[in-house]
Sequence to fold (237 residues):
Amino acid sequence: MNSAKSDPSYMSNDTTLPILYSLKNCPYAMRARIAIFYSQHAVILRNITLNNKPKNMLDASSKGTVPVLVLSEQEPKIIDESLDIMLWALSNNDPSDLLHKEDSSSLPNMLKLIATFDNEFKSCLEAYKCAKRYHEDNLIDCRQACEIFIKDLEQRLTESCLPGHRFLVSTKLSLADIALLPFIRQFSKVERQWYLQSPYPHVRNWLNNFLQNAMFAKVMAKYPLWSPNSEKIIFPT
Fold:
């Protein structure tokens, strides 16, 4: 994948934009970047590593994990939960209507689905990943615990959406789709051959449509690690 240095916005000197501390493959940072991409609300992207957390980030948020969005360095105001960053970005600008604003019941339903995956599926996924990594005897049990949630998505994609336009809560893209995407991507990688033959064709199609999209390539672009002397990187380009 091409480096961000090939894009002229890499050299921007804008100092008025919010600052996003991010990590390329962290699923929480990933979904924050996806929402910002769709909102087209520019931020200064600082790509970091958790092995060498920058003091600037820790001064802004003591939790020490990404993503962290610093809205203003002059009067520090931060958002350090990925879902809150997503809602902030899309509340500012939502040209694709990911929040489905005309349907008052849609956002609460989306938030409920996201909470289920954040609070329940994520722990099952971590157990599944560990079972695979350490060759534990309970791999199948861990996978089946995850499948309870995957089956729900398969059912949603089968029943509620039109052919060729399948999304999780309606016939169009939503906050729920982009919030769950990074975690379903992780699930798909644990036992790749099993996943490709699993009885979840709609989930596979849903995921593949994102992974093959130009949006995903831009969100997952490789940027150099940030340091205080780094050139500013404006995201999205």
Notes: The chain has two domains: 4-97+216-235, 106-213. The CA atoms of residues 120 and 149 lie 9 Å apart. The longest strand covers residues 43-47. DSSP finds nine helices and five strands in the chain.
